[in-house]
Amino acid sequence: FWATLAVPRETTVQLADRWPSEVALRSTHTGLNRLVIGLGTADVGSGISPARSRLALANILDKAASEQRACFVVGPPPLPGVNPDGTAALSRAVTEVCHRRGVPYVETFEPLHNHEQWMTDVAAGDGNHPGQAGYGLLAWLVLHRGWYEWLGVEQPG
């Protein structure tokens, strides 16, 4: 069962408060429950420090681990109009939390911040979401940086 629980402009602090009840409604007692966390740049725009973001994510991952819920984290991508230094700092904080907990993490900021197609695709839309080409780039990163291993399946082709 898959459900997307994204809330536009939600910070990691807000997500840490909201996710337990949302995920509980969508979990099964008879199967494997997993959690994919895709982080955006709301923390940067809201002035939340990387340390506070790190703590919020650590709390999410620790609670999920206590529920035997495997997690996979996708980091914040670069966006036009969002401070790149702030996004890079947030990404480093997320990397640290995931590394310490052995949680698979897909870094998106570094591979995309100088990627012309990514920036063009996001800028052509609403400035916050990519178009088809941008989502393809994100999918490629996820699929080639731990997705199949996390699912325990063989990578195709």
Sheet-strand content, in percent, reads 5-15%
Task: Specify the biggest β-sheet.
Answer: 3 strands, parallel
The CATH class is identified as: Alpha Beta
- What is the molecular shape? globular
Low-confidence residue ranges: none
Span between termini: 25 Å
Number of domains: 1
> Helical stretch count?
7
The percentage helix is 55-70%
Order of helices and strands: HEHHEHEHHH
How is this structure best described in words?
There is one protein chain. The protein has 157 residues and is mainly α. It has a single domain, classed as SGNH hydrolase (Rossmann fold, 3-Layer(aba) Sandwich). Helices cover 55% and strands 8% of the residues. The chain has seven helices and three strands, in the order αβααβαβααα. The chain has a three-stranded parallel sheet, sandwiched between helices. Strand 2, helix 4 and strand 3 form a beta-alpha-beta unit. The protein is globular.
Please outline what is shown here.
55% of the residues lie in helices and 8% in strands. The chain has helices at 12-25, 42-46, 50-66, 84-101, 109-112, 116-124, 132-151, and strands at residues 34-38, 70-74, 105-106.
